Amino acid sequence: MDYPTSRFLPTGLHAKVALGVIVPLLLILGLFTAVGYRRQREATLAELSKLAAYTGRVVESDLRHQMMESDFTGLQVLLDTIGEQEEIRRLYLLDTAGRVIFAPQEREVGLRLNNSRQDCQPCHSLPPADRPDSVVVTTPAGDRVFRSMAPIENSPECAQCHDGGEHLIGMLLIDVSVVPFTERLAAYLRQNLLLWLSIIASTILVVYFVVDRLVLHRLAGVVLAIGRVSRGIEPPPVPEGSPDEIGQLVRAFNRMAHQIESRQRQNQALSDQLQQQSRQRGRLLRRLITAQEDERIRVARELHDELGQSLTGLSLRAQALERYLPPDDDRGQAILDQIRALVTGTTEQMYDIIMALRPSVLDDLGLVSALHAYTERALEGSDLAFEIDDHCFHDRLPPAVETALFRAFQEGITNVLRHADASHIRIKLVCADGFFKGELADDGRGFAPAAVEPNGHDARGLGLLGMEERITQCGGEMEILSAPGRGTRIRFSLSLYEVTCAPED
Questions:
Q1: Class of 13-185 per CATH?
Q2: Alpha-carbon torsion angle 125, 128, 129, 131, nearest 10
């Protein structure tokens, strides 16, 4: 079964192992990095909150002291000192109307803050009870700051200047830049990434070396051995190594390779035996065909010489007997005419048998004359017309080839007479450049060659098998082209340079 693979995935086992190590490491270390970064960020924000709270408490404490002493100069000095710190972006003391009454270096004193600005919305968009004490915002200038709002509550000490009914007398606003802290977070993240990359690279090298030596190298030996088996090459036994799953695989492969080798030797022995039997069968078949033809020649000759002479003698004696019969002996003359007719019919039957056994014209004049004589005699009295195209055939063939071809055409003509219901037969003979090609065609009913089986119940199948066997014995080929209702063509072809059907000594 073929499993679908993506063209984006690696196909090599080394690459898959490396990918199997890298992906889990990236996921695990990425998760650890994200968790660590989040914790570091929370810790940084907590540190900022502490810094803002501490700054607020210091300022508020000093503010109360300076205000109680009415030492506004000291209060300004305090704000100027705190404002000199790089992280402090803004430090305002606001009154209840949102107006700046004190600021470092007295910058923007008297400015009234508009709480509808974008950087004020994270708090002022919420109800007063839900507003946080600190939040990270982006100023209109684009700076990210941690903003802390510390309300200054009224107290009995403040009653000299403020109405005792007021709950709040002011607000301390501090903006602390988050840039130093984000830079620290970025450095932390870079350090972690470099650490993780180093861990990943070191892990890949170690895993690659261990897996390559303990797994992939051993599997490569199995793959190499399997490739040799697939090419039909006997591989040497693969070292088993440690008794793990790969060792069990190697042992199973070695057993399988041994079984394959044993079966190949058995199959080779059987193949050699079959080839030997086929050669013996071929030699035996050639001997049988030769013996059959020799016996046919002998029987035909004996019929022609002995029975022919007897019939000729009987015919002569009948002629002599006619001289001794009285002219008016009608009964004797009738009997004599019957004897003559019987002798003539017997002689015709004898020549039919001789033609079927072995026409002497085949040995005397060759294949073309024998086919003419046999076809004329076989089709005599039938409505079948025939033609023999032999204008490209002039030379005699080896006797064994002529005999095999004659028998093949003879069987084909017999099949046409028995089964084809044809009206025309055409025989074509071509011999050129050491190759013979012949064709027997009819316009009969045709048949499906695949449906004709060479068994004892189908005479046509046995006849076709015999034809093919004779042609094959001469190193030739036979092709049958037929279909129901489209007639039949039987083609023979063989090389006269590779004739193998000569009788063996």
A1: alpha beta
A2: 50
